[in-house]
Amino acid sequence: MPAVAADTVENAIVGRRSVRDFSSRPVPMVLVERILLAARRAPSSTNMQPWKVDVVTKAARERLVAAILDTESRAPGMAQAEFAYYPQQWRSPYAERRRQVGLELYRRLGIKKEDQARARQQLLRNYEFFGAPVGLILSIDRDLEAASWLDIGMFMQNVMIMAAGGGPASCPQLAFAKHHAVIRHGLGIPADRIILCGMALGYEQIDSPLHAMVTERAELDVFVRFHHQ
Ligand SMILES: Cc1cc2nc3c(=O)[nH]c(=O)nc-3n(C[C@H](O)[C@H](O)[C@H](O)COP(=O)(O)O)c2cc1C
Q1: Is the CB of 126 under 6 A from ligand 1?
Q2: CATH number at residue 55
Q3: Cβ–Cβ under 8 Å, residues 101 and 215
Q4: What sequence ranges are listed for the domain Nitroreductase (predicted)?
Q5: Per-chain mean pLDDT for the chain
Q6: Is 100 in the pocket of ligand 1 (CB under 6 A)?
Q7: Would the CB of 179 count as within 6 Å of ligand 1?
Q8: How confident is the model over 18-62, as pLDDT tens digits?
Q9: What's the domain range around 182?
Q10: Are the beta carbons of 121 and 44 closer than 8 angstroms?
């Protein structure tokens, strides 16, 4: 692949990571708009462009964070997403991969397996967008089907790749789907939409123990079959 452009894209894709510790350095809104303008070029089935995004910053972000944390303190861990986003039964190889990320996260943060209080504290950091000054909430019209869910995944990846290309960092956050009621109320998202996912956008805290955490990937022969004849 000799093309320079391809190298640049490859670097952005390979260099993207989920960042879970952001500095308070603000992200200029022109940059957020630029990222979203590029991301909307994502392909979508019959060009439906099903993505809907609420951007929260400053006081709006603070209010949303406070409302979710308040709900979590009154009914810890009780909020449920409107859709099942994980399998009911974890099995190999997914269970191991999931465990590996969790273990590495906890190892870096010095959280012992039995320290449930700190583990919960870290979980709750999700709802502060891990300190990122910009939060995105992605939602989808309730009557749309699987194709549109795929499309939104592509849109989200575009946002993250744009961010990885020298701009701010990101973390996609399904955790927000659990708090659809609070989010819907706080942001005035209509009932005919499903709240799918959140995303943190900001600049990484470079001196964080989580800095440069790179997750593993399976080799090609694990997930690809080539058929030639
Ligand atoms: C749709 C989606 C939702 C995610 N939700 C969360 C989340 O709620 N909290 C979190 O810390 N990470 C979340 N992640 C990040 C994954 O854990 C991460 O992508 C995975 O471990 C691979 O690491 P990497 O993104 O750094 O390559 C999510 C990722 C995706 C794609």
Answers
A1: yes
A2: 3.40.109.10
A3: yes
A4: 13-203
A5: 96
A6: no
A7: no
A8: 999 999 999 999 999 999 999 999 999 999 999 999 999 999 999
A9: 4-215
A10: no
